[in-house]
Amino acid sequence: MSIQEEALAPNFLKNLIESNLKDNLNKDKRWSGKPGPASVQADAPFDKAKIRTRFPPEPNGYLHIGHAKSIIINFGLAEEYDGECHLRFDDTNPEKEDTEYVEAIKDAVQWLGYDWIEDGRSNLYYASDYFEYFYEFAVALIKNGDAYIDEQTPDEMRRTRGTLTEPGLDSPWRNRPIEESLDLFERMKNGEFEDGTYALRAKVDMASPNINMRDPVIYRIKHAHHHRTGDKWCIYPMYTFAHPIEDALECITHSFCTLEFEDQRPFYEWLLEKLASLGKFLRPLPKQTEFSRLNVQHVVTSKRKLLNLVESGIVDGWDDPRMPTIAGLRRRGYTPNSIHLFIKRLGVSKSDSFIDYKLLEQALRDDLDPIAPRAVAVLDPIKLVITNVEDDFQEHCHAPINPHNPEAGKREFLLTKELWIERDDFMEEPPKKYFRLFVGNKVRLKYGYIVECTGFKKDADGRVYEVYVELIPNTKSGTPGSDSVKVKGNITWVSTKYAIPAQINLYDRLFTEASPDSGTKDYMDYINPNSLKVVNGWLEPGVEILPGNRWQFERLGYFVADPSSTPEKGIINRSVTLKDSWVG
Ligand code: ATP
Ligand code: MG
Prior knowledge:
Layout: H1 12-22, H2 38-41, E1 52-55, H3 65-80, E2 84-89, H4 99-111, E3 117-118, E4 121-122, E5 124-126, H5 131-143, E6 147-150, H6 154-159, H7 178-189, E7 199-202, E8 217-221, E9 235-237, H8 239-249, E10 254-258, H9 265-277, E11 287-291, E12 294-296, H10 303-311, H11 326-332, H12 336-346, E13 353-355, H13 357-368, E14 374-375, E15 377-378, E16 381-386, E17 394-400, E18 410-416, E19 418-422, E20 442-445, E21 450-458, E22 464-471, E23 489-491, E24 494-495, E25 500-507, E26 532-539, E27 550-553, E28 557-561, E29 571-577
Parallel strand pairs: 1-2, 2-5, 10-11, 12-13, 14-27, 16-22, 20-23, 25-29
Antiparallel strand pairs: 3-4, 6-7, 7-8, 8-9, 15-26, 16-19, 17-18, 19-24, 20-21, 21-22, 25-26, 27-28, 28-29
Bound molecules: adenosine-5'-triphosphate and magnesium ion (MG).
């Protein structure tokens, strides 16, 4: 079983589902195969899905690591309990939504290993397909005396809403005759009024201790173009009104959302109870349950803030490998399994926390270590010359493709007279405990021979550009003499004659602060100026630079070929270093 198929550890959401299933709570639930109110579901067969969940993103940006948690919860639990999960675009807010985002969201969900097809039927829905229903139900509430048209300004409404300790004040329009509200609502829909002049409010309780119950606005006028319905509507339902109805139309059993919606739950229940009692929905009604958001340190997880990074040019787009978007993580070299592993390790609870970015990185290492092929790369090259061999010296060396998996076989490359090594593998004046190259010291050229450093050359600026060594015969790795000389240093190298050049992007944290957007902080003040360093390096011959190919470059970390990489110009992204190297 792959990590992806591994279930979430026991948690309160699973306990809830199990207890609901035990009580047979949804035994009377019907599902016609498409969303709709009681009239559409009443004669339908009983729902075969044991539970029905949904992942309801607003298509106003690319999904981020926080959404991955919600996806894994909703799709994962549906899979585990023989249910179905809907992908629903919550696109009732016309202004910031776009079809580019719709496509990117579908892509992210599929990349994480899920889809919305059940028995050949698609569970992909758009809240904007329900605009007629929202309107119909709003009219039903008005007719029943449960909603009214208010003409206070948004400002007046805010002022009369009361506080946590004081009740709100009734609007002067609260007891407007039903007929009048119906007429005004229709005229709102017909486009007779400007934005903000009228609003439809639910008539609940202006003295409720929960401010969300103090006659929330449920419909507003907005003369705006919608990416799917065009200019058909100039009134749009508010989230608090739309979301419960979307769940009920789709016959959702468990509506899982993040904790900030806890205070909205009483209205969710009030509204669905009203509509059920008016015959609009069958029981059992969907139930909302909240879990804690995922916050990760050193990133921001808000589509609005991520959009700002894109628009201000701080990153190269939504899929910039520094972005905590699913598209960015993917381009950075994260695997679907590593994301699953990360989310599953964190578990599901009701307590909010900021998760250390290191845990995300560790999940990637843990996923890749057993599977990633190894190779050698030199990122900051200086030349090493073996002085005591012929110019055309060539010798085959072998190394495991993956030391955890001998069956993967061996790789082969040539040791030649001139090699590229890392600049910091040589020191003119070594400190104590430096075991790599300095004049007089011996090291092993990994998978090759032991060499002794004999000298070096500096350029006019005093920068070392060539290091000289003598090869010690009969010390080759894997031969009986390899242990005859003991050394403490083991350095990686590639042949200057055969190495492949590549551009290598070294990424680091995007923000210098662990929580760049907490409290009154402005996250834009904490952009890490060194989050990207581009170097020209050399790769072991035999490495195939095809977009998406991954390796562990020995001693350096895990790397992936960028989608923009071509055979002529290899572009490689560092996904993560081998060990945690972040200071701060
Ligand atoms: P953003 O502020 O980034 O736009 P959102 O909550 O407004 O986030 P939606 O598109 O409405 O984004 O989210 C879809 C679903 O994903 C919701 O059910 C939401 O609760 C969940 N979700 C969003 N962010 C997180 C997070 N950080 N952790 C867990 N779930 C999240
Ligand atoms: Mg949102």
